[in-house]
Task: inverse folding
């Protein structure tokens, strides 16, 4: 019987106990969830990167508010694990997990090389994969995130610029992203 993933089990516990997992909760600051997360850090410090790298993305996405729960985990304990290794482990599964691709692109790759918590090579690889996914899926949120991530450089990717031209007339989020990065 395969060993259960500690992070997935934490999410299961958070749901069962009704813990808040909102990133910016002004009522409780997701205190119970964060405390349990830090217990994983203490108990499994040596294997944190492996724990996150082995998360089943389908199972992750099945939890309510998984996006915030993942962001809290990556932000609170990110310096104790190799985000590069985690993100590279997730990359082969992204074709079926556009929301994960989009979340990581927007919150972790978009920050730029100087402030990013991942290496430039992994950021570039993640961005390239997201461009492929945007072409295949035409997912407006992913396209919006790519425009914000690449800024004016999105125009150096003809396939992305073509999607932007088509979607910005029918999608307010994409149109706004284009205006923001264009300075208008």
Result:
């Amino acid at each position: 019987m395969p060993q259960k993933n500690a992070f997935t089990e934490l999410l299961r516990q958070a749901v069962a106990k009704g813990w808040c997992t909102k990133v910016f909760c002004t009522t409780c600051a997701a205190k119970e969830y964060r405390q349990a997360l830090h217990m994983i850090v203490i108990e499994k410090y040596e294997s944190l990167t492996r724990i996150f790298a082995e998360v089943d993305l389908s199972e992750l996405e099945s939890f309510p508010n998984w996006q915030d729960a993942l962001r809290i985990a990556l932000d609170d304990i990110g310096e104790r694990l190799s985000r590069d290794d985690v993100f590279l482990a997730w990359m082969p599964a992204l074709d079926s997990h556009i929301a994960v691709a989009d979340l990581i692109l927007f919150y972790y790759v978009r920050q730029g090389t100087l402030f990013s918590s991942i290496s430039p090579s992994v950021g570039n690889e993640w961005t390239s994969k997201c461009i492929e996914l945007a072409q295949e899926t035409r997912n407006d949120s992913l396209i919006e995130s790519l425009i914000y991530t690449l800024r004016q450089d999105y125009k150096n990717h003809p396939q992305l610029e073509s999607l932007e031209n088509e979607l910005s007339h029918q999608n307010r989020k994409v149109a706004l992203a284009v205006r923001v990065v264009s300075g208008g």
